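Supplementary material to the annual report.
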Amino acid sequence: MENDKKHISTIGQRIPRADSALIASGEAQYLDDIRIPGMLHGRILRSPHPHAKIRSIDTRKAERVLGVKAVITAADTPKIPFCHMPVTPNKLPLCSDKVRFIGDEVAAVAALDVDIAEEAVSLIQVEYEILPAVFDPLEAMKPDAPMLYDDCEKNIASRLVRNFGDVAKGLSEADFVFEDVFELPRVASCTLEPHGCIAQIDSQGNLTVWSSTQSITNIHEELGIPLGLPLHKIRVIAPFVGGAFGNKSVILPLEPITAFLARKAQRPVKIVTTREEEFTCSRTRYAMIIRLKTGVKKDGAITFRDAQVITDNGAYNNKAQGITMVTCNRIGNLYRVPHVRTEALIVYTNNQYGGALRGWGGPQAHFAVESQMDIIANQIGFDPLDFRLRNANQPGDKTVWGWEITSCGFSDCLRRAAQEIGWPKRREKKKFRGIGIAGAVHSGGGSMGAHGPANFEEVLVKLNSDGTVNVSVGCVDMGQGSSTVLAQIVAEELGVDTKEVKVITPDTDNAPRTMGPWGSRITFIAGNAARKAAAEVKSKMLTLAKDLLDVTDTAHLGFENGEIFVRNTLAKHLGIREVTEYFSRHFGQAILGRGFYNPENTVPPDRTTGYGNTSPAYSFCAHAAEVEVDPETGKVEVIKIVAAHDIGKAINPMLVEGQIDGGIAMGIGYALLEELKFDNGKTLNPTFAGYKILNSTEKPRLHHILIETDDPNGPFGAKGVGEIAMIPTAPAIANAIYDAVGVRIKELPISQGKILKALKEKVNSI
Amino acid sequence: MKHQVRLTVNGVSHELLVEPRVTLLDAIRELIGLTGTKKGCDTGDCGACTVILNGKSVNACLCLAVEADGGEVLTIEGLRTDSGPDLIQNAFIEHGAIQCGFCTPGMILSAKALLENNLDVDLDESQVTAAISGNLCRCTGYEKIIQAIMSLVQRSSIK
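Predicted assembly:
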């Protein structure tokens, strides 16, 4: 029977994360649950000073503690600094001559248990020569500021300038110009599972590393350099990962330290960081100051944006250059902006250094842009929703930055979120209640990496002899459900049940090379690769089935819903299992398919100007918030959040909703609660008691609206959603607070104190 | 000096020799070898180590093993029935309440303590959110976790 109209069976289904039964039963093994025979436990000695020279380190007392098997310092590790980004690398696994923040790694111990390791660490004597330190990026750029690096003038690690169109022209066309300064705090990733690593080296020098990482390839390739090992001698395995959010995507000193301890002790070593270390020494979201200038015409059209961004790099280069560039390009690309200029300074300070965290620089940029959109609308007499719709990006737009927007449901997101939150009736609401809206754009299929134009994944599909399917990918499922989505895509292509598809735990010994899950890229990039791999399997199956079904050409065969059939006949058909059984019996091999995907519709950024189209698709969304503010205490209750998302196509709506819910929770934390507080570089709140993330009682009512725009290049039309859900929540809340009590807070988090202060100033100014 | 401690964990009796400073969490994970109970902070703030001790949910990192001497402990490994996941585990799976899963064991045990201690009551959502307010989750925004537990709050559902 001809069956040209394909029956969609698994795409769009609400299927739970494939391995959630293992998690619910407690069987799932996370890093700290793994035990290797003979395994030692490591601890790291960290600098108590924000800035100091190391005069000497004496480890003799530590080495004499019973049960200590190895102590290492910079003398045991090469002086090869690392950094994932193509900028000056300056982080050593262990500091050799200088420490640059409180928590900098100085020495490490491996011992029979953690208590012994901790005791030994406390006995290491380090003589420091304390240096003056600087914690504020504005102070750090002053001529007399302490210098973190000898060769770095004004502590400026990088200056990034982008200039598209003609900002002077945009200024001359503007009827109004607005200028506001926004400040964004340093926040922690707060993955419930801390970072951890186990390293084991055999007598032949083969290193096996278990890492709570989201990118086995990054750990693999970045570890090879300090260890001086060829990559075939390093094997990296990712066990279950207890949350990552970008924060576990590249090496910390943790991995090389664990490996060097294992090499010195000649025994496996495990290090799991404490929660305090998570707060004080793992990488944070970058703190930024954004000065944003925007011109508009009386008719509501934006004429230009001009922004200055100052990023507190902290003590070492990590990902600030890429993240700050994302901040700049979001400023340039959210809404139709005909002329844009951005200048960013990335400044070293003696603070904990930053890294990747859900949304990259998007949350910072969007807080500035979407707060200011409301400021502008209110000043020029526009409804904030209408002002946004007036300027919203549309399908087919090419931005002044070079982005080529394919599918785009931004206006729909804005309208439907507004409708659901009760925008038309917002003037009838109770006193001290307010409604706000904010939009967002983010990569919907990853971006070109920092190292070149690649934005790839590779997927291998193997049919077992019984017709079930194994899928090898490098990308780690850190909880977002990517492996389930990939299983659905392969199942859909082959017409088998998703339960018959197994996505294999990533292991560099046999997995394809991966860029890893970041930039909301796995559904789009690995999803397309999975489709191609499955298509190759299908094509091979047809060739085999040709003989079995006695036809001369595969063109006479159809393949739908797991069945191969001869077109225009009723009788002849074969199931996948019949083909695989026949093939394995007669020829022995498994049927393999390889799919590699690197989008063809992207344009690498120009080396000089940065002009380019870095993502194959862009996701859009709008969040609308309803809040109630207590004017006596400044306390904000978030009543409801409506999240309308253009996700292209929801391959698994339940997982999509899960991503949105989690993004909103992190966004509410960013808006109202979260901030690492410091005193002279020392973290004042390194516990969940002092650093609040949203808890269950603070969760507002949530409402999702999924808008399917069917992206032309996405697998089944899908685009990414993981990060964008975090992004517009904070400005939507800030706008709702303004709507409720008329105060505009431009500095996150919007604490009770800031609201009370602003309310008081408002009263005094009347 | 080490102390002898007797614990019944998931119905199995264990005799342990522990230093007085060893927490119930480390006893369960390191001495008994049940790693389903997670260590997220070790300071009683995150709830990942929640177990049920003598019928009440506790943070195992805040309880010393010697304090639990003679006690009955239920960990996540003790919930599974012969026919597979128990009702609460199933509800978490089916509602998509599990993302990274690191908070899941503790979350499920907080839910179990709530439901088991209120067998004759129809619980409302505020009681559910209060019961898991000590269990932090960074992935799910709690939405589907609350939906999963709410699917079981009718009096007869877990009997």
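Confidence is low (pLDDT under 50) at residues 1-5 of chain A.
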